């Protein structure tokens, strides 16, 4: 079973376990069927080398607590001791393998690595939507060697995001923040044809502001994407909604825009309250500092008051609403940031294609 337990950790302790909790229904279903469950996941970016700071053993311990059921953990993948553990597992037993990215074959989508992974099991279940946009061995190539199925989380993710693309009730508001406009240009371009408004914040908004001739000082932005943003502003007009004001941090050589300002909060809140469907990805300010988290918190609170479909995606944004006890106000919390954006951009995801037998 491929999961995405790539959770935020501090001092080897899990800060946000949403991605682990999200696959519990699939794990419990498999346990009820008496399956031996071999879980593969990655953690962080070890770059194809063993780094025990990115061990999956703390993930196994946490999963055991959540299930109230024993879970074995190892830092190995194919060593003899792994085979011995699997061989002696009882029905409904669970083993979390070592970090898949300890082996360079994982990110290279290497056939031999995938074949060896497949040799550990009899059936493959992908419940890792958040990595389905990656051509990784445990996501794509492994489906050549085992009967392959999607898990309950994967089904829920694709069904919810498909609804946004195909049957979203209007007014449909999309909120896009965060740092990387390159990651989000596709979804903005695709959804602008389907939605009523796209509200921008963070460095994404800064790049669009610069594209419109607004002075942004030394604020985080992507100069290489300014021309792309300028063309989108021309094509979609007022659908692309940029901040009216911002909270600045003055510096000797200029200023940084670190949050949306009060006029923007007021206008965005007004638009959000009239919505029937909302999709949100990316914080609207530098939320690592509470002084610049006011805009993101205000928008999150406004969304929770809406009576409609409310979907949030992206690790930083999900962590923010969880840490501020606002998650109950959302219809669906996606585990995928990049994967959700790729899906909503209209691009086929390698992990989904692999499950469908290679058909786009």
Mind telling me which CATH architecture of the largest domain this is?
3-Layer(aba) Sandwich
- Element pattern in H and E: EEHHEHEHEHHEEHEHEHHEEEHEHEHEHH
Any idea what the radius of gyration is? 22 Å
Give the amount of beta strand, in percent: 15-25%
- How many structural units, i.e. domains? 2
Distance between the termini: 23 Å
Proportion of helical residues: 25-40%
Query: Using DSSP, what is the number of strands?
Result: 15
Using the alpha-carbon principal axes, give the shape: elongated
Please outline the major beta sheet.
6 strands, parallel
Please state how the strands of the largest beta sheet are arranged side by side: 10-9-8-13-14-15
Roughly what is the average pLDDT, rounded to an integer? 94
Structural class: alpha/beta
Describe this structure in words.
- It is a single chain.
- With 360 residues, this protein is α/β, with parallel strands linked by helices.
- The protein folds into 2 domains: 9-150, Rossmann fold; 161-344, Phosphoglycerate kinase, N-terminal domain (Rossmann fold).
- Helix content is 38%, strand content 15%.
- The protein has a 6-stranded parallel sheet with strand order 10-9-8-13-14-15, with helices on both faces. A 3-stranded parallel sheet has the order 3-5-4, covered by helices on one side. The protein has a two-stranded antiparallel ribbon with strand order 1-2.
- Strand 14, helix 13 (315-323) and strand 15 (332-333) form a beta-alpha-beta unit.
- Helix 8 (181-191) runs parallel beside helix 14, helix 9 (202-211) crosses helix 10 and helix 11 (262-273) runs parallel beside helix 12 (294-304).
- The radius of gyration is 22 Å and the shape is elongated.
- The mean pLDDT is 94.
